[in-house]
Amino acid sequence: MRHSTALEESRRFGVRHIPLLRPLGWLARGWADLMRNPAPGLVHGLATAAFGALLLALVEQRFWLIAGAFSGFLLVAPIVATGLYAVSRELQRGRRLSVAESLAVWRPRDGRLVLFGVLLAFAGTGWVLTSGSLIAGFAPHPIAGPMDFVQSVVLAPDSWLFESWLLLGGVLAAPLFASTVVAVPLLLDREVGVLAAVLTSWRSVMEDPLPLALWAALILVLTLLGMALALLGLVVVVPWLAHASWHAYRDLVDTSGLSERP
Predict the structure, then answer these.
(1) Residues 117, 79: contact at Cβ < 8 Å?
(2) pTM of the entire structure?
(3) What SS3 state is found at 78?
(4) For labelling, which of 111, 134, 223, 230 has a CA lying 20 to 30 Å from the CA of 187?
(5) How far apart, in Å, are the Cα atoms of 111 and each of 115, 191, 192, 197?
(6) Do the Cβ atoms of 141 and 161 come closer than 8 Å?
(7) Following DSSP, what letter does each residue of 116-148 receive, concatenated?
(8) What is the mean pLDDT of residues 64-91?
(9) Are 149 and 63 in contact (CB under 8 A)?
(10) Domain coordinates of the chain in residue numbers?
């Protein structure tokens, strides 16, 4: 019964069909938002890069764990960006949020966002443990650093370990992407239940699978580029993608029939 109610709630508003290359427009608008109000985004980006550096320091000799942890970051990134969705929303209203106001969105006043964040954290943790177990258990040699990972996992002869790792990650990441691509900004912006937001996200993906596949690829490539630049690229990439994701939500979902959240 609850599932039926959530489905009915999701169908109260529509999802829009978009052109294939529309995600490039989201990147352009996301960049414009970052330039108009850079401080909140750069604080989020610096915090993300600092967390990545701390993670590297804590598990310096366990790259098999790092590989899963950084890919797991992509799973929880939508909830991490919540404050920046609020920044883009207020820019559309003609108002700039301060850093403090963007961080205030993290306060656990909205049980829906808290619940969604916990679910994503469980998913990310599950992937980190699964990834680490797969690599540590089947790699022919200990994985202590990036070159070990490349030689013993990526380029290992007569081994399907890397392909299996990618396949397993894709099996987990694809439904999570479909569940989150518009769900978190929708929860921030409108009065709607968590399951209804997730169902709306799935409806958006099914309506426009090719543009959203392109969007997923752009997110992956830009995030990997940010990580490759000694993590410093994340200072810009994280807020850029967060602001762009807000515009993806606004393009994909017609929320005219729902009341706004203050």
Answers:
(1) yes
(2) 0.83
(3) helix
(4) 223
(5) 6, 12, 12, 14
(6) no
(7) HHHHHHHHHHHHHHHHHHHHHHH-SS---SHHH
(8) 75
(9) yes
(10) 28-254
